[in-house]
Design brief:
Blueprint lengths: L5 H10 L4 E2 H11 L8 H13 L3 E9 L2 E8 L1 H28 L5
Antiparallel strand pairs: 1-3, 2-3
InterPro entries: Metal_resp_DNA-bind_regulator (IPR052509), Tscrpt_reg_PadR_N (IPR005149), WH-like_DNA-bd_sf (IPR036388), WH_DNA-bd_sf (IPR036390)
Pfam families: PadR
Organism: Rhizocola hellebori
Amino acid sequence: MAEMREPTFLVLTVLADGPRHGYGIIRDVAELSGDRVKLLPGTLYAALDRLVAQGLVEHVRDEIAEGRLRRYYSLTGAGLEALRAETARLRQLATVAEARLRAVNPRLA
């Protein structure tokens, strides 16, 4: 699989903790990213549709809360594996960067 864009990585990371509805995903992605990544509903649902089509995420249920429809999504087994692979890729890159920083100045790492 190709490398993931950060919003996709964050959505999968949020869903690794269990099913979430759209607003919950938006809120948790913002919190996880320190408010750097703020997903708009249209952007999120387009991403979720893409992730469902790729088999990484599945729609698990709907509920009505305060008169509004909430769609819940969950990570699939393939989504979990994709998240693990991307996490390993990012970890490997960070390890290389840290080693290079230490080589330049041991106090930088």
